[in-house]
């Protein structure tokens, strides 16, 4: 793939050099300031002498030019041609030095689409166009950041509903949305239930259950299945009348059908790489002991892509394990974390929890399940305080190391 990309870039630069070498520095129509299609054909067709043995424009290039004339003519003809020939693409993502992800497009297109050019890309031919949205906004960008009002400052609204809508350009071409909670804190759960502040996702496939979450979830992510839905897809943060400081920045990425970035079906979370880490939602919430719990009524899969030449993974707890804080129930029938067919539950200090090895020929799947009951049976202050959840690191091992 990299060789093909380099070859494409070389061809692009050859063609660009050819255009600048033409006598048509006055390529525009002097009377109107626009370039005509016939003029383009004359200057880029068979009569044009291209360097390095290029005697004519490729069919691919001609098709791109022909299709472009269905759109509004640009006032700068040279930029029009450069955009057609440059390695800018609506589907090519870019990343700024600050970590923001956007699309590498022309500065003019970025402004038209309501984005913000944060840095140049494609050797200065375009800008990394980042889309930031907040309450009551809609976006069709490949990547959009949904932020709390006034982000990065905290938002202390007493109550309200903040909704962000995703409308893909072509619904049938998008199969998943990935939500990355780059910075996320809203009021946490009370006794395992999000009753004060709530984040919900709607519009996904009917058989795709996306859990309601709250609390601290920076670094978490979700995959949302949307392939058979017509939307609209909405992310909504609902806050109570209690005055709390909240803030969030969620990166929303549209994933096309057939993309290698798609997560396997029924995986709420999907991890790649030979090493990694995963935690229960709201893990490590230090706002208050009552809020530092996982949620009730959870049932989701954490899937791990098996990398090339790898045959499994070793899982090690990097924090105390608290899933059902009382003594382990028979066969972990209540709340549990399963590695394949092996269930873990109870309260176990991390130094006492042996590493777990998962090796098979199929996918590596970790499943978390919680019921609708509190461990302690309490409903007031201190209820479910011990159910802090889990945090694990994994390291994949090679097939040559033995299973």
TrEMBL record:
Signal peptide stretch: 1-21
Residues covered by the CUB domain: 135-255
Keyword Disulfide bond appears in the UniProt entry: yes
InterPro entries reported in the protein's UniProt record: CUB_dom, CUB_metazoa, Sperma_CUB_dom_sf
Keywords, in A-Z order: Disulfide bond, Signal
PROSITE patterns (UniProt xref): CUB
Residue pairs linked by disulfide bridges in the UniProt entry: 135-162
Keyword Disulfide bond: yes
PANTHER family membership: CUB DOMAIN-CONTAINING PROTEIN, INTRAFLAGELLAR TRANSPORT PROTEIN 122 FAMILY PROTEIN-RELATED
UniProt-recorded name of the protein: CUB domain-containing protein
Native species: Oedothorax gibbosus
């Amino acid at each position: 793939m990299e060789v093909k990309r380099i070859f494409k870039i070389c061809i692009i630069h050859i063609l660009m050099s050819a255009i600048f070498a033409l006598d048509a520095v006055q390529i525009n129509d002097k009377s109107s300031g626009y370039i005509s299609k016939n003029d383009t054909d004359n200057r880029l067709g068979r009569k044009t002498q291209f360097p390095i043995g290029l005697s004519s424009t490729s069919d691919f290039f001609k098709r791109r030019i022909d299709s472009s004339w269905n759109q509004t003519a640009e006032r700068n003809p040279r930029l029009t041609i450069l955009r057609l020939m440059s390695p800018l693409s609506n589907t090519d993502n870019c990343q700024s030095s600050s970590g923001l992800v956007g699309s590498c497009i022309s500065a003019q297109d970025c402004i038209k689409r309501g984005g913000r050019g944060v840095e140049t890309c494609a050797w200065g031919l375009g800008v990394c166009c980042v889309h930031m949205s907040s309450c009551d906004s809609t976006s069709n960008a490949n990547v959009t950041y949904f932020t709390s009002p006034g982000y990065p400052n905290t938002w202390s609204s007493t109550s309200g509903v903040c909704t962000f809508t995703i409308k893909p350009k072509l619904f049938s071409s998008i199969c998943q949305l990935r939500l990355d909670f780059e910075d996320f804190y809203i009021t946490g759960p009370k006794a395992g239930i999000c009753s004060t502040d709530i984040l919900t996702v709607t519009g996904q496939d009917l058989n795709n259950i996306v859990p309601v979450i709250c609390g601290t979830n920076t670094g978490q992510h979700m995959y949302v299945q949307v392939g058979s839905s017509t939307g609209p897809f909405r992310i909504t943060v609902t806050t109570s009348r209690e005055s709390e400081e909240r803030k969030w920045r969620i990166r929303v990425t549209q994933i096309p059908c057939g993309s290698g970035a798609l997560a396997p079906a029924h995986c709420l979370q999907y991890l790649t790489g030979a090493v990694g880490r995963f935690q229960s939602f709201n893990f490590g919430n230090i706002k208050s002991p009552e809020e530092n719990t996982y949620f009730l009524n959870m049932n989701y899969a954490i899937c791990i892509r098996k990398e090339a030449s790898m045959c499994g993974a070793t899982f090690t707890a990097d924090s105390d394990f608290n899933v059902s804080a009382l003594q382990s129930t028979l066969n972990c029938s209540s709340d549990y974390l399963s590695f394949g067919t092996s269930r873990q539950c109870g309260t176990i200090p991390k130094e006492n929890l042996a590493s777990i090895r998962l090796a098979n020929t199929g996918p590596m799947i970790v499943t978390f399940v919680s019921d609708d009951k509190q461990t302690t049976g309490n409903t007031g202050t201190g209820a479910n305080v011990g159910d802090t959840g889990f945090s694990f690191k994994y390291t994949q091992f090679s097939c040559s190391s033995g299973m």
